């Protein structure tokens, strides 16, 4: 696991005098073993600086980065070289050495470490197998597709058996099919090697299909973080809205509700259950439902129309909660009437 | 009408080779020695220039500026001027101011900064990720420079060596004026000062063929090093 604690990074301002530029303002983030945490945020939020700190290419100004309890952020020189193998890094567009074959690219960290050739041969063979490229071992990067190059990049990052894998915009620039295959590879490696994977990305699709947890950073600060199911299940969560964006049609009911679920077991037939139990009809205005992890997660806006006497709103919300749904009132009848 | 017929002493075509072959070998010896130093010293300087820059392995702004300034200074003088300007230095090193040893020194002094810039540019053209990949793969400074940086930039560096070699052959001809042996000396002393048109023509042909050949072989070599890059990119 990797624990990032109160990470700050300042850069000296371009002008000689004046304050330093604060890029990271106290980021704390823990990624347990065998899980994938996505770090999202707009460009300029500090994502790439965070990535550089995690891959130990930049020293944080203060704070610590502990891998399996050991603080690596303060190391330098020989000690840094020795310990940095705990963290594997996959770059965007799989920066490979163009004049080396896939095999040689993957073998490079092992050769540099001084591993004996026999072991290198065995280990590289295994790595190529785990990323599904046994038949491309002697191809040069330019003879491989974007997705295949990224697989080689992942295999190289895993060569020194790290416990943490940092994927810095690893799927940017890949076509949707390659992106999906890289993400399923990452999930497979997470389970196979118990990797703590930090996935730095700006693509919400990537988060939805691969992440176990999400952290949003903006302006150098952590805005919110939590498991994907938990964030999706909160009606007011901004990340939830970004992950499952809704564009509702015009409301035409007595009550408009924002519903979300995913953190608790759900009664999937909740609409029929409700309308059988109470004199009401539910109109779905917008919905986004998807399987996240093992559960169905969803966000939707519904309009509720009462066929007889209106039901007390609190009772309805409690009923929904019992069925596994969190709700938030967007419009009530009174408000609708006022509008008219 | 030939106005200077009296002075003209054209070497008979059949005799040209007796002068040309030793001079040609002399040129290659001189250029060979120079290139040995230029590639070693210039290569080292180029690597240090790149790695002391912001994108390098050991950024060091003031050292980078000092080296850059030194390299620019070496490159700002025309070769003939440089050769004359460093005569005391040449004399101090070789004990003479004429002949091949005296020509080799200014050629090294002129060639080294030129090659340093070529190497620095070759390294700068590499994607920034090359050094980062070296670092996250746990390479030592030496491993990253040799196995990632230079290895990836090799086609460009070889192209630089070819470019530099051609410049040095050109410089060796200029050095002929201070009595350095070789084909340049032949052209100056026989062709220019003795109006030996045959020697002049032969020298020109030999030089053109030599340069064409070097460029041709060089291009093939670079292409074969780049072969690894394959045909399609993206």
From TrEMBL, chain B:
The keyword Nucleus does not apply. Residues 24-218 form the ABC transmembrane type-1 domain. It is found in: Cell inner membrane; Cell membrane. Keywords: Cell inner membrane, Cell membrane, Membrane, Transmembrane, Transmembrane helix, Transport. It is a multi-pass membrane protein. One of its GO terms (biological process) is D-methionine transmembrane transport. Pfam families: BPD_transp_1. InterPro entries: AA_ABC_Transporter_Permease (IPR051322), MetI-like (IPR000515), MetI-like_sf (IPR035906). GO terms for cellular component: plasma membrane. The chain crosses the membrane at residues 28-50, 70-92, 98-116, 171-192, 198-217. Belongs to the binding-protein-dependent transport system permease family. This is ABC transporter permease. It comes from Rouxiella badensis. The lineage of its organism: Bacteria, Pseudomonadati, Pseudomonadota, Gammaproteobacteria, Enterobacterales.
């Amino acid at each position: 696991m990797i624990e990032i604690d109160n990470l700050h990074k300042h850069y000296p301002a371009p002008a000689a005098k004046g304050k330093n530029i604060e890029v990271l303002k106290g980021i704390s983030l823990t990624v347990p073993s065998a899980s994938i945490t996505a770090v999202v945020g707009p460009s300029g939020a500090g994502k790439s600086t965070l990535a550089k700190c995690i891959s130990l290419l930049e020293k944080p100004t203060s704070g610590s980065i502990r891998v399996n309890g050991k603080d690596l952020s303060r190391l330098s020189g020989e000690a840094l070289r020795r310990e940095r193998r705990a963290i594997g890094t996959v770059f965007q567009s799989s920066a490979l050495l163009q004049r080396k074959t896939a095999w040689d690219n993957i073998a490079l960290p092992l050769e540099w470490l001084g591993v004996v050739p026999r072991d290198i041969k065995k280990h590289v063979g295994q790595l190529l197998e785990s990323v599904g490229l046994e038949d491309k071992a002697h191809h040069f990067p330019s003879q491989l597709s974007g997705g295949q190059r990224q697989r080689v990049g992942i295999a190289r990052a895993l060569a020194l058996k790290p416990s943490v894998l940092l994927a810095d915009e690893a799927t940017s620039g890949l076509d949707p099919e390659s992106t999906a295959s890289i993400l399923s590879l990452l999930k497979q490696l997470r389970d196979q090697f118990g990797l703590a994977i930090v996935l730095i990305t700006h693509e919400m699709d990537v988060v939805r299909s691969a992440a176990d947890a999400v952290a949003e950073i903006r302006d150098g600060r952590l805005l919110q973080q939590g498991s994907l199911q938990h964030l999706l299940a909160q009606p007011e969560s901004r990340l939830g809205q970004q992950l499952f964006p809704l564009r509702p049609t015009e409301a035409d009911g007595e009550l408009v509700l924002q519903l979300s679920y995913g953190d608790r077991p759900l009664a999937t037939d909740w609409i029929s259950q409700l309308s059988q139990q109470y004199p009401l009809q539910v109109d779905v205005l917008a919905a986004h439902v998807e399987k996240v992890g093992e559960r169905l997660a969803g966000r939707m806006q519904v309009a509720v129309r009462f066929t007889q006497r209106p039901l007390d709103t609190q009772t309805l919300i409690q009923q929904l909660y019992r069925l596994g749904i969190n709700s938030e009132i967007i419009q009530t009848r009174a408000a609708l009437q006022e509008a008219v | 009408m030939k106005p200077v017929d009296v002075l003209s002493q054209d070497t008979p075509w059949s005799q040209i080779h007796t002068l040309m072959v030793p001079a040609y070998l002399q040129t290659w010896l001189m250029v060979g020695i120079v290139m040995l130093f230029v590639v070693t010293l210039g290569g080292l300087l180029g690597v240090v220039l790149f790695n002391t820059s912001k994108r390098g392995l050991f950024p060091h702004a003031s050292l980078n500026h000092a080296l850059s300034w030194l390299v620019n200074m070496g490159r700002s003088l025309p070769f003939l001027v440089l050769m004359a300007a460093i005569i005391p230095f040449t004399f101090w090193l070789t004990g003479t101011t004429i002949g091949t040893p005296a020509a080799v020194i200014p050629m090294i002094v002129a060639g080294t900064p030129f090659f340093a810039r070529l190497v620095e540019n070759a390294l700068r053209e590499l994607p920034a990720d090359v050094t980062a990949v070296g670092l996250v793969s746990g390479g030592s400074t030496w491993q990253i420079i040799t196995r990632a940086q230079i290895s990836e930039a090799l086609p460009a560096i070889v192209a630089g060596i070819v470019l530099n070699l051609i410049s040095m052959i050109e410089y060796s001809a200029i050095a002929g004026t201070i009595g350095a042996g070789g084909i340049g000396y032949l052209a100056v002393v026989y062709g220019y000062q003795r109006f030996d048109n045959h020697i002049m023509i032969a020298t020109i042909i030999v030089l053109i063929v030599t340069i064409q050949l070097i460029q041709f072989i060089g291009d093939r070599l670079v292409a074969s090093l780049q072969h690894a890059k394959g045909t399609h990119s993206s």
